[in-house]
Amino acid sequence: MSEPTAERRAKGPYVVIECPEKIPCNPCVEACPNKAISIPGSMIELPQIDYEKCTGCLLCIPRCPGLAIFVIDETPQEYSIVYIPYEFLPRPKKGDIVSGLDREGKALCKVEIIKVIDSPKFDHW
Ligand code: SF4
Ligand code: SF4
């Protein structure tokens, strides 16, 4: 999967998709109003991102059934903001300090919850 350039990362929030398995799935493509996500050829192929079209709007995050979509904002000077899908209870609260984990579940760093956003409800899942 492609990665955004350093120049693009400095411009503002951008999408990250960690969807490495070939599965018949494509709601992410329909979710993006800017057509920044595409799955060329068969639906089973992996999603591709056009980082110049992505505005980091977050709309694709709740549409992925695999919780595979994130948005990262590296523009703050002292930290980065990572928007993630989260389906568990209890809901985190603004101001909570939690552990940031790597892909293997090992603690990487302390993370402050700065915002909790409810996603819209979709009637076609
Ligand atoms: S964050 Fe917004 S603009 Fe970027 S890929 Fe997702 S829906 Fe499209
Ligand atoms: S919606 Fe999610 S799981 Fe499905 S292809 Fe897109 S990124 Fe992968």
Question: How is the topology of this model organized?
Answer:
Layout (H helix, E strand, L loop, with lengths): L5 H6 L2 E4 L9 H5 L5 E2 L9 E2 L19 E5 L7 E3 L13 E5 L5 E6 L13
Antiparallel strand pairs: 1-4, 2-3, 4-5, 6-7
The structure holds iron/sulfur cluster (SF4) (2 copies).
Molecular structure report:
The chain has two domains: 14-85, Alpha-Beta Plaits, CATH 3.30.70.20; 92-118, no CATH class. The protein is built from two helices and seven strands. It has helices spanning 6-11, 27-31, and strands spanning 14-17, 37-38, 48-49, 69-73, 81-83, 97-101, 107-112. The strands form three sheets. Strands 1-4-5 form a three-stranded antiparallel sheet, with no helix packed on it. Strand 6 (97-101) and strand 7 (107-112) form a beta hairpin. The chain binds iron/sulfur cluster (2 copies).
Order of helix and strand elements from N to C terminus: HEHEEEEEE
Our estimate of the beta-strand percent is 15-25%
Query: Could you tell me how far the N terminus lies from the C terminus, measured between alpha carbons in angstroms?
Result: 26 Å
Biggest sheet features: 3 strands, antiparallel
- The tally of strands reads 7
The residue fraction in helices comes out at under 10%
* Overall residue-averaged pLDDT value: 94
Rg, Å, rounded:
15 Å
CATH architecture classification name of the largest domain:
2-Layer Sandwich
Please identify the structural class as seen in this structure.
mainly beta
**Bound molecule types:** iron/sulfur cluster
CATH topology of the largest domain: Alpha-Beta Plaits
Order of the strands making up the biggest sheet: 1-4-5
Overall shape: it is globular
